[in-house]
Amino acid sequence: MRLGTVLAILLVSGTSLFGQELVSEAGPNRQHKFFDRTNIALIAGMTAAETLDITSTFHFRDAHPTTAHEAILGGLVDNRPAFVAFSYATVVLNVGAAWMLHRAGHHRLERASSILHIGLTAPLAINNYAWVGHTSSQAATQSLNLQR
Fold first, then answer.
1. Given a cut of 50, is residue 72 above it in pLDDT?
2. Contact 130/62 with Cβ under 8 angstroms?
3. What would the pLDDT profile of 101-137 be if each residue is shown by its tens digit?
4. 134: alpha, beta or left, given left = phi > 0 and alpha = psi -120 to 50?
């Protein structure tokens, strides 16, 4: 329930940011520098969201050593330096994609990709922190109750 609320808030805020961008670029051939205030804020937001995701994943992993993370990411989460490098590489990859979209003149997509990155990463981190309160026995009990 909490995750759905967070997703709804991010969807509304992302839509409003995207809508503002549509209005501001209504002029013909309006150009902007790649490292303007908006893109710097979006890059900082992606970095902050990834940092929150990294810390929440480690926190979750320490609280629940055997979980679905093993099936999804396997040993990557256990190798903390590699996981941190992988996570920040996604930010670098997104900035590179935004740069290519900027050079191609797709300024709305350039910013939408960063908003999407934040919108997908932040709720996952929040979800990791939300599950930390559940012990393994509570989770097993809940799954047994759901199967009945």
1. yes
2. no
3. 998 888 889 899 999 999 999 998 888 888 756 555 5
4. beta
> Is there a domain that residue 144 lies in?
no
Hey, CA dihedral for 14, 17, 20, 21, is it positive or negative?
Answer: negative
Query: Is the residue at 54 inside a domain?
Result: yes
Count how many domains the chain has: 1
Residue with the bigger pLDDT between 29 and 126: it is 126
Q: Is the four-CA dihedral 107, 113, 118, 119 of positive or negative sign?
A: positive
Q: Residue 74 sits in which domain range?
A: 2-24+34-132
Q: Does residue 29 belong to any structural domain of this protein?
A: no
In angstroms, rounded to a whole number, what is the distance separating the alpha carbons of residues 124 and 137?
A: 22
Within a domain: 106: yes
Share of residues in the chain with pLDDT > 90 (%): 32
